[in-house]
Amino acid sequence: MSLFLLFLSAFLVNNIVLMRFLGLCPFFGVSSKIETAFGMGMSVIFVMTLSTIITWFLYRYILVPLDLIYLRTVAFILVIASLVQFLELFFKKQVPGLYSALGIFLPLITTNCAILGVAFLNIDSDFGLLSSVVFAISSATGFLLAIVLIAGIRERLENAPIPEALKGLPISFITAALMALAFLGFLGFMGLSL
Amino acid sequence: MKRTFLDGIIKNNMVLVLAIGLCPALAVTTSAYNALGMGMAVIFVLVFSNLLVSLLRNIIPKNLRIPIFVIIISTFVTIVDYTLQAYVPPLSRQLGVFVPLIVVNCGILGRAEGYSYKNPPHYAVMDGLGIGIGFTIVLFLMGTIREILGQGIWLSIPEVFPGFQVFGEAFTNSSVLLMILPPGGFLAIALLMGLFNHFRRDK
């Protein structure tokens, strides 16, 4: 598959949040304001790209040669957790500007299943390094797009008259359902239909 | 002890109250059977990780506890993953990447940290069972709603059982396809959570 098609597929058609259901906790947890949603999205792009590169090398050059594939779940989660911790310390000391922008989101990212999910998807699809990185960046950009869009809608929903039982999360789920419905339209890009 | 169990099902319900574990709840509930499979896997991991954490609670040093919990949980997740692949390959293919992703279900880490680390083993097991069953019930309901509306059948098992016809042939041929597509997952959980909020407020 050409890299551009891969980008389009991961960014819109198989949007990681709305179509693959990965990373829903931050998608609903930190999407009440556009600013925080944007910060979260940027941190996801950053961490997902780095963690994809690291887990790709870890899998190809350590786990496979040593016949330790059954340890991949344990190995990946530990590597991602330590990467996030390291980035947090590094930013705090060296790049305070970036730290104040992304800092509070970094600890939350360890439990973002999109990061680990993309690492697994890369292996299951047997991607090379370049395809893996493109897939990670476009998936993460798709996450940024989805979370900023829903944050914009939720800001406006605040003043809308909503039935008592649907206030808060349920109405956000309905919003997400309509967004997912709209994203189904992108199937046409790939020459697919339902 | 009975209280611990019941609290896990209703008061601390992972999906409806705490809104945790949403990814598997939406992704694998295209049929009731898949939902049950995912629920069982989570119950297994929760009960055993709770038990082990609780047994080791006096040995695990306080400042190393989170990485140790993560290793314990991912060990049980690996066991589940390989067991499913060996004995029920069709189910394993359907659940796909969401089986290894049980590791990052923050509900499980949350129980280890918030409950098992402070309570004796038999309570920890009851808590794991309660939370796990509460999670499974919600998944099963979602799977049921989506499968019946989306395909007109209920409880179909790939390669084993074609499922009960709910609305008859005519419905199956022109079902609400939307419900088994991604938007249907969001709609089903919005509906369940809305109903749950409504009846809980009345009490």
Present the secondary structure layout.
The complex is a heterodimer of chains A (194) and B (203).
Chain A: H1 3-13, H2 24-29, H3 34-63, H4 72-94, H5 96-102, H6 106-109, H7 113-124, H8 129-157, H9 169-184
Chain B: H1 2-9, H2 22-27, H3 32-55, H4 65-87, H5 89-95, H6 106-114, H7 121-151, E1 153-154, E2 164-165, H8 169-173, H9 182-202
Antiparallel strand pairs in B: 1-2
Helix pairs in contact in B: 1-7, 3-4, 3-7, 4-5, 4-6, 7-9
What does this structure look like?
The complex is a heterodimer of chains A (194) and B (203). Chain A is mostly helical and 194 residues long. Chain A has one domain (3-190). Chain A is built from nine helices and no strands. Chain A is globular, with a radius of gyration of 18 Å. The two termini of chain A are 21 Å apart. The model of chain A has no long low-confidence stretch (mean pLDDT 89). By secondary structure, chain B is an all-alpha fold. Chain B has one domain (2-192). Helix content of chain B is 66%, strand content 2%. Chain B has a two-stranded antiparallel sheet. Chain B is globular. The interface between A and B is large, with 44 and 42 residues.
